[in-house]
Amino acid sequence: MAAWVRVLVLVACLLPVLVECQIIRHYKFNVVMKNTTRLCSKKPIVTVNGKFPGPTIYAREDDTVLVKVVNHVKYNLSIHWHGIRQLRTGWADGPAYITQCPIQPGQNFVYNFTITGQRGTLWWHAHIFWLRATVHGALVILPKLGVPYPFPTPYKELVVVLGEWWKSDVEAVVDEAMKSGLAPNVSDAHTINGHPGPASNCLSQGGFNFKVKSGKTYMLRIINAAMNEELFFKIAKHKLAVVEVDATYVKPFNIDTIVIAPGQTTNVLLKAGLSAGKYLVAASPFMDAPIAVDNKTATATLHYSGTLSSTATTLTAPPPHNATSIAANFTDSLRSLNSKKYPAKVPIKIRPFPSFHHWTWCQPLCYLCQW
Length: 371
Prior knowledge:
CATH architecture of the largest domain: Sandwich
Largest sheet: 6 strands, mixed
Distance between the termini: 65 Å
CATH class of the largest domain: Mainly Beta
Low-confidence stretches: 7-19
EC number: 1.10.3.2
Pfam families: Cu-oxidase, Cu-oxidase_3
CATH topology of the largest domain: Immunoglobulin-like
Number of helices: 3
Enzyme class: oxidoreductase
Shape: globular
GO cellular component, one term: apoplast
Cofactor: Cu cation
């Protein structure tokens, strides 16, 4: 074998060691209609890949993500990657008529962005009209390979998406609000991973089941995908150890109830410290102003392995919807992790008269968008 060939073979063998390969994650979103039954009533909804909530995107810090979105429905749409820092890829951010023309029916678009300096739980959602009521899902960014969490590694991770459900077509709801000049009608139910749980007008519907093993610790990646409402979240007889908010590590603290605003994410560690049983998981609204909200509580079940399905569920009472003290107890407990690896970069010098500038930029092509 010629000497130059041997050199090429040697370089090829060593290259993976010398150069850290960039991983590209490929996903395909088929936006389709799906007949879905909730509250004992069926209606067609807009979904991604026929799922509600939509599929979870998994990636690691520094990965590149490519998502091909194919629009099979009658609506224009776009997808926003909520919380992703679009460094030199602002065109991939997703707001329709702002950074891109919407994807028209029968058309497709490829989102291409690199996750830089971020890890944790974020989410994606439609960014036009009210389509995000059903077009949304989790975006999980794992740390780089070999980089541990700044807390004990959980046995398993579970995605928990909180949302709202209208019996009516959500586009009809917002259209009526625009015509009347009034606030949109409140939702008919809240949901946990797409399910409201048993309701007074539909006792036969089940809620979502979280299956756990006694003695194990789980990380719940909680996302509030509701349109407008802050939500309380709690689990009967269990404490939640808060370790991250909006893809930023925080000093861990234990609490009974968290509050999470629309668009926010919170990661908690759940110790399945009981021997057996079924325990109620509840998501209910927080509103301490005289504003109408959907006052219904979504429920799910924390189901310990080995527990019979016929076992009675241990209940918990949701906080009053105006429980400001409970919400404040959560927000007042939040502190930056501020470790050596994850410092809190707070400026030492503060400008006494800061100025803010806001502008909207649109590609020339957007002026040709069909409204």
